[in-house]
Amino acid sequence: MNAELKPMKASFSIVVADLEANKQLVQRHFNEVINGKNLDVIAQLFAEDFYSVAPNGKIVTGRENLSNYLGYFFSAFPDLHMTVEELIAENETVVARVRVTGTQQGEFWGIAPTNKFISIQEVFIVKVVNNWVVEARPLPDLHSLFQQLSAH
């Protein structure tokens, strides 16, 4: 019976290492792409056939479209910053709970620049396969976002 447990322990340690690697990959996205505003890193982290459904319903596919989409956010919120508050990994899924901050200095989803500072929570559900981000589902607190942008 003990002989049967040894392979399970080895498999468990490999799985834990994979989970940690997946979390580190997602953390790099926030550190280098978002906070570092380095869109070139997308090619190192995201699969060519990457897929996402944005909060506004827009479907974003591929690295180039992701780069353009994030560029839009960077022009609307030049000081956009995401602080990872929690990372949870299970199988191919990584869930990140982040604090999003920034000042709206450009047009954003039809809203003219307000120069208002926002601070909201956002959850990202990310699928990682073979060390590539293949899918992401951003789930921001849109109520708080629009409330802060429209506050007088």
UniProtKB/TrEMBL annotation:
It comes from the Bacteria. GO terms for biological process: polyketide metabolic process. This is Ester cyclase. It comes from Adhaeribacter arboris.
